[in-house]
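FAQ: What does the model actually see?

It sees only this:
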Amino acid sequence: MKPDLSPTARALLALELLQASPGITADRLADKLGVSERAARRYVGILREAGIPIESVRGPYGGYSVGRALRLPPLMFGATEALGLVMAVLDGHHDGGDPSGLVGSALSKIMRALPEPVAAQAEAVRRATAPAPDRAAARPDPRTTTTLVHACSDHRRVRLDYRTEAGSEWLVEVDPWAVVVRHGRWYLLCHSHTSDARRAYRVDRVRGVEVLEASFSPPVDLNPVVMLEEHLAVGWEYDVDVVIDAPVESVAPRLPRALGRIEPLDAERTRLIGSTSNPTWYAAQLAMIPVPYRIMGCPELQEAARVIGARLLAAGGSPPP
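And it is asked to produce this:
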């Protein structure tokens, strides 16, 4: 505990300790704050004067805890707890029933502060809900993610201990531009000094992060989501070239950027250039474009389109060609 903290800062730290450890005694609170027991009681008094319902129980098994009120008191979350809640919302994380986890710990603080009738209903839902685990989910470690988010914000270079899906491991120094969530996957968009190129690394495959002293300036025109989708659309096994019979301005809002790059071929036609490792998936995405198009080259993609087309014709009652 820093010795030069103001009384307000110590009172807020006391509130965080009370929320994290219901039933904490005055001597334990004083020890964690680095003050005398009398001073700790004074900070509890400051919180009460601010309208925060601090309850106390006397006796050998007594202590302080934050009570319930008509309005929620300020909730003090640690950085990893706060990011854990954000991650839970973004990717449908379901470990809220485990009070020892980051999300469960943060939810417990909210539950303890809610008015009794509301808390009872919320707790009933929490206990009764049994979400099926998402076997395809790849949730990164919140502490690793926190470190990367801070490095992006502070413009500090990092060294990653990375492991690929195939099991290869290496160390790489990167300038972290942004952490982006796409289809349940967490990516670090960055500039790799090892390859001197833009890269996107899966955060769940980062085994360790070391923040370095070197700083950097991100690209001035950085749009993390757009840049990530463009990056993920290139470098796959099959090259794609598609001509779409519509002007580029009408195609752009309807075409997922993950399919590749579009450019005007002329005033009435658009060219789509990309790549894929799954021609069937790519052909299905193209089938949703509400205008005529032609696949130029790439026999694998053309065959996938024919198979999907025949299946759609059969579903509509028409004989396949």
